[in-house]
Amino acid sequence: MYEELRNELKKRKYRITAQREMILKIFLESRGKHLGVEEVYRELLNRNVRISKATVYRAVELLVELGFLRKLNFGEGLYRYELVDRTSRESHQHVICQKCGKIMEIQSDQVEKIVSEISEKTGYIINWHDLKFYGICPECQRAEKEGSR
Ligand SMILES: [Zn+2]
Ligand SMILES: [Zn+2]
Predict the structure, then answer these.
(1) Ligand nearest to the Cα of 99, by number
(2) Which ligand is nearest to the CA of 27?
(3) 1-27: per-residue pLDDT in tens?
C-alpha cells in the first residue's frame, strides 16, 4: 500500500511526506472505520506528529484524489473518509444510527440488482453509488426502552 502510494505520488510529482504516509497508515490501522479530519488530526497528535489541521485536510483530500480514500457525507456537517479496497470491487452500504452516530457496514446482493436495474432503465454505465440507511441501533433501542420504564 505504501509502495503504491509512493508510485502514485511520484507519477504526479507530489512529494512523499512522512505525514502523508502516516495518515494512510492511520486509515490502514482503522479499517472499517469512517474517520473525520478531526479524528485523524487527534490521532496524529497522539503519535507526536506535529501538523496543522489544514495540512491534514489537504493530505486527506489528496489521498481521495489519488483513489486511496473515499469521501463520505453522513449529513453530520462534516466529511468522513474510509480506505478504498483497491483489490476487490465489492461495495458496501452504510447504516447510520441517528442517536449515537454509530456507522455499520453491510453488504447486500439486492443492491447489485438495483444497480443493474438503474443501468437498464437509463442506459447509463453505473460507476459508483452511495446508498445510506438511517435508523436507531439496537443499543440505543435498548437504552430507550430502559429509560422509559
Ligand atoms: Zn445508536
Ligand atoms: Zn464504509
Answers:
(1) 1
(2) 2
(3) 778 888 888 888 877 788 888 999 999
Reference 23, options 58, 67, 71, 75; nearest CA is 58
pTM of the complete model: 0.79
Q: Which cell numbers in the block locate residue 88?
A: 476487490
Does domain 1-87 fall under CATH 3.40.47.10? My reply is: no
Distance 120 CA to ligand 2 centre (A): 26
Q: Which ligand is nearest to the CA of 142?
A: 1
1-87 and 89-149: identical CATH topology: no
Confidence of residue 126 (pLDDT cuts 50, 70, 90): confident
The size of the chain, in residues, is 149
CATH annotation of 89-149: 3.30.1490.190
Q: Which of 3, 9, 43, 38 is nearest to 26 (CA)?
A: 43
Domain range annotation of the chain: 1-87, 89-149
* Side-chain half-sphere exposure of 83, counting CA atoms within 13 A: 18
Q: Tell me the CA–centroid distance for residue 71 and ligand 1, in Å.
A: 22
Residue 93 alpha carbon to ligand 1 centre in Å: 17
